[in-house]
Specification:
Length: 399
Amino acid sequence: MKSFSLKVILWCVISFLVIGVAGCQGPDAVSLVATQQPTSMPPVRALGGAVAEAAVVPLRHVALSFVTSGVVEELLVAEGDRVAEGEVIARLRGRERQQAAIAAAEAQLISAQQALDDLYENHPKVKAEAELRLATAQKSLDDAFKNLENKKLRRGTREQIRMAQAEYILAKDRVERAEETYAGLGNRAENDLDRAFALTVLSDAQKVLDYAEAKLNNLQEKPSAYELGVAQAQYDMAKQELEAAQRDLDKVKDGPDAESVRLAKAQIANAEAQLEAAKAGLADLELIAPFAAEVVSCDLKVGQQAVAGVSQVILADFSEWEIETTDLTELNVVNVKEGDVVTVNFDALPSVEVKGKVKRVQPLGKNVQGDITYKVIVSLDQKVEGVRWNMTATVVFAD
């Protein structure tokens, strides 16, 4: 812009001096000076507004690169090809590995979802089992309590003692009847079979009576410290089992166990994250066109290493153009705002002049050889045939 502005100013000054001199020297001098004007100078533009050099750019363009490094396996386009939005431009090796990871994540997700579904479907059964466990634990605790209370008095329970007493009475009765029978045969010879049989019955009855008496005495005796300790331990265990059964029922009485549901949902979330990561990994192996465009340049080759983040494909949509200024300084940009009308000329198309509007003023300035310049983006009011990317243009801003 500086060189162009200086040229314009210099040309105006020279013209003013020449015309002034010619006026003093007469008509012939004016004619002489006019024939000596240089023909290569650009036409004089209005000096009321700012003038900026600019470049022609496509409305949409992008430099593409892979987000991961790898070896190029497929190249599906060439320079000059048209690509549709979403079309694959190139692929890196490793698709089979990522597809296997996707399949594994999908299987994990199905399993995790099934586990969550089972929690709700099996809840009625789980609740019933918890209620049965609680009832059983309550019965065990009651029995353990009775046993412990009995043990504090005697070894046997009241029921056991009553049963032992009954056995003792019956055994004693059998002994008495056996004695009567044997006494009735006492005058017989010792080798008499009936006398021998009666003696055997009496002996057996006496043994049963002795056992019943010993059992009754044992049940009625005070228990040892060890027996009391065992009974207490059985009671304590039964009590803990009851408390555990109650906790388990509390967890499921209003629905599936909340902690189990939380864990199942966490497993689902993890599986979903794994699946998304695997899909992203697969997508990272592909270079995709973000919009319909033309392949301006492509440096990719099959078998070569592609470096992540290094631009190797440039796409552009040449259906519309914009103008971007390159040297509008801070002294002039303060008077420019969005919507301002401008005039645009092209160095390569000297006969073309079109109107446009300021689309955007870039807020961040750049230091260019000591001048702070701001990029202004201009949209054209009409299409211009023959322009190409980065052609030089001039933008004249209105007063």
